Fold these 2 entries.
Entry 1:
Amino acid sequence: DIHMAQSPSTLSASVGDRVTITCRASQNVDNWVAWYQQKPGSAPKLLIYLASSLESGVPARFTGSGSGTRFTLTIDSLQSEDSATYFCQQYDAYPLTFGQGTKVQIK
Amino acid sequence: EELLVESGGGLVQPGGSLRLSCVGSGFTFRMFTLTWVRQVAGKGLEWLGKIDDDGGEIQYADSVRGRFIISRDNAKRSLDLQMNDLKVEDTAIYYCVKGQQLFDVWGQGAPVTVS
């Protein structure tokens, strides 16, 4: 199985900050990576697919990058509503696997 | 609006069985692969398996193969997850999800407790 190692596990930042979350795959997954946002009590929401493509309706302050084994999700100008847990997911091979999540807290 | 609504979660003893159901609306249900994903409280997400649009191809994660059965009825727009021989470690929130590799529509989640 492909392991997705996500870091950090938690981060705290202020409104307006830029934050970056990293996901490392245990093997090459090309650009078959997605990012999801999950708020407490809700299901995950798709933000980014194909490593860098923004899902319709997702604010442009969310950007994804990377290929191969290293991927990043960046939130420019963090907003209070961005407080959530973020997960990466590879869909290069089955079983599909997710990172363990990064909890973003607002200071 | 595309929606998936799960039902059937609850408390079950180890070794017992439980059936989850999921009904879709707002999209052409019969045209899409559907997937089950679970999440242990406060933890990450685990892909459990998928069923293609006509139910002809089903794939399972190793952790549930032989115990869980995925099925669908396109006429009823329903997706089911039959869970047998449940273990304490199967305790989680179970989501039905639209999609094969990318998941753009999620159900609200069905909590399952094995204790």
Entry 2:
Amino acid sequence: GEDVEQSLFLSVREGDSSVINCTYTDSSSTYLYWYKQEPGAGLQLLTYIFSNMDMKQDQRLTVLLNKKDKHLSLRIADTQTGDSAIYFCAERPGGYNKLIFGAGTRLAVHP
Amino acid sequence: GAVVSQHPSRVICKSGTSVKIECRSLDFQATTMFWYRQFPKQSLMLMATSNEGSKATYEQGVEKDKFLINHASLTLSTLTVTSAHPEDSSFYICSIFQETQYFGPGTRLLVL
């Protein structure tokens, strides 16, 4: 089946690193994505990783993929107040262009 | 990446009326567009896949007669919520796939 799970809330201090975790169930997923949604706004693609990769880094963002455990994480280095948002993990099941989303993790950054 | 627009961005309507939401792909010819719905503080749920020149494919549990989808051109898909009721109030987001998925800014529908 297709299911994506995330923790619902994360609070970090400004300047610290944030790690948002996600697990998925579909082993045929070819791509896994991280999206950011600010209040009242649409979804912004942050990064994505192909299923045959273990890690992808893009400036302050690092994505780690453990395909064996079906575990995905997003690390945000030097977290800023502007990073406060909801972060959605999503999988793309093999053979499809649709995405299956997790419930989203609300990241709160405090001084 | 691809640019996707939606219109209107926000709409308030009376119960029983129909509302049309447009999704446009501004720089890419999209044979397929996706419609998602997001209830407050919840995740996005795929409603249907819009196919240019043919019928849309609806996800299980989505009423095709209530959510009419028309994909008449490679740059435009419309979602019409017919006889809207308060429980249809939601955030509707469309997307296209070009190597990855790009989302529109969303349309917030409030049915009174």
